[in-house]
Amino acid sequence: NTNDYEKYYEEEVLDNNVYVLDENLKEVASIKGLAKNESVYAVRYLGNYGYFVTYENTDPLFTVDFSDMKNPKIVGKLKLPGYSDYSMLGLGMENDNYLKLEMYNVSNGKAKQISKKVLKRYMYSDALHDYKSIIVDKEKNLIGFKATLSNGNYEDVYVLYRFENNKFKKLAEVSLSGESCAVRGLYIDNYFYIVTLGKDVKVLDLNNYKVVKKIK
To answer: pTM (2 decimals)?
Structure first.
């Protein structure tokens, strides 16, 4: 029955629950109905807190306090009591068309969006589904990931940004010569390496953000 299937599918998608298990995988606590009627797209744990990011723009960030594992609590939407200064980076989509970068400041018990940049040159990134494909390094102030240009040719590039003065600044855009998979970025000293599986390694000088070497 199509109607029954659609009803079942809708319930599966929109029902978000959190379970706490002990070392024997027995349930000790749960939270039912987290982010009701919204789709959870990412979950991260920092200290005693769990952050649940949803697709909806109305309530994009839920926080759960796990300091008492037998009694986890939803702290609220964009409210993080008892947490000190912290910044949270978000990479997502703007109206299903373009990539966007967002930075949240978490301080004095609240989370506030302090910056947003819509990347109209780019329509997709592997980092939307694979957090290991993005590099975020505080020491070098680097944010790097592969992106697909929004020019209809499905050309992939690797982009580097930094965050300073509450703004995202693009440092480099390096062509990956067509479509590429399994792209990773890392740095050693003042050189940044863009590694593409089965293709090559491109080396950027972090002093001028130019490609200085290509290794097949």
So the answer is: 0.72
